[in-house]
Amino acid sequence: MNRNRWSQSAGVVLGAALLLAQVPAAAPDSAGTLVVRTSDGGQLTSLALPADGHWCLLWHHSVQGFQVEDCYRVADGQLLLNSSHTPDFAAGLGHTPGRGRLLSDTEHGYRIVDIDAPVPANHFLLRVGSRRVDHRIQVGARVVSLSQLAAGERVEIQLIPPTDGAPSP
Predict the structure, then answer these.
(1) What are 20-51's pLDDT values in tens digits?
(2) C-beta separation of 46 from 32 below 8 A
(3) What is the distance between the alpha carbons of residues 80 and 78, in angstroms, rounded to a whole number?
(4) Residue 72 in contact with residue 56, Cβ under 8 Å?
(5) Which residues, at least 6 apart from 141, have a Cβ–Cβ distance to it below 8 Å?
(6) Where are the domains of the chain?
(7) 53-105, pLDDT tens digit by residue?
(8) From 100's CA, which of 19, 41, 115, 156 has a CA 20 to 30 Å away?
(9) pTM of whole model > 0.85?
(10) C-alpha to C-alpha distance for 118 and 62, rounded to whole angstroms
(11) Which of 108, 123, 107, 101 is nearest to 34 (CA)?
């Protein structure tokens, strides 16, 4: 390998190491860390997930204004869309037969449970809505408003699985 290729490879490895160094290590009883980055790779926030890996993305429907809730969980290092809740099937919302179970809630809304749809590569992109839409991530009692941090921007939401402490090969 010539020197130029070696330095390019070393730069890529160093860049990846620096990016990972910005992500705090998850607690030993954690399902991993949820990291939100801007389109240029800057980190907006990171949240340690509990052992069950449960967290939710909340927002207000841009037309009707009611709160929508998509909840995720982590199973064997895989991020899964687990459930969705909405008080109304307005534009863009609804149930696809065979994808989870549709239930009524006590407030005349709808909850789709047991979806368990894998999120490809443990990450997805989101165009963050205005403060009126107020996209938020909720992990337990902690709530982080993405709309306060990055309204109108495209962000990446990614699960970083916990490491077992063993060095990589």
Answers:
(1) 444 444 455 789 999 999 999 999 999 999 99
(2) no
(3) 6
(4) yes
(5) none
(6) 27-160
(7) 999 999 998 777 778 899 999 999 999 999 988 765 555 555 456 666 666 66
(8) 156
(9) no
(10) 26
(11) 123
